[in-house]
Amino acid sequence: MIVAGFGFRAAATVASLEEALHLARQGHDGHLSIACLATAADKAGTAAFRTLALRLDLPTCAIDSAALTAQPTPTRSSASRVARATGSVAEAAALAAAGHNARIVVARVISPDGMATCALAERNDP
């Protein structure tokens, strides 16, 4: 199961999120089937995030702050660390939603407008 995790600014548009997801999927030739979209709980209800989920016909997962901060992330953004106490909201959301034994398959990428990030995580079932 692949989860697309997102971090984004309040002014991010659907296009920002789509572009970040597109960048995250580059080089995988469509071999990554996304099962759900995840983000911080306080962002999950935003119009841009909900619209993206509707366009892609995917469920969403709202990750609470405790679950975000519990995830070790390969990226160590100082801005994200200050704002959310995690190295990457996108990576932490993807890992938390993918569940136990998840791993990052695509580290955080940033949309061209700098408004959104996306990372992909996969559950490693034993």
TrEMBL record:
UniProt xrefs under Gene3D superfamilies: CobE/GbiG C-terminal domain
InterPro entries associated with the record: CobE/GbiG_C, CobE/GbiG_C_sf
Protein name as catalogued: Cobalamin biosynthesis protein CbiG
Organism: Roseovarius tolerans
A single GO BP: cobalamin biosynthetic process
Pfam families: CbiG_C
Coiled coil regions, renumbered to chain: none
Segments forming domain CobE/GbiG C-terminal: 2-121
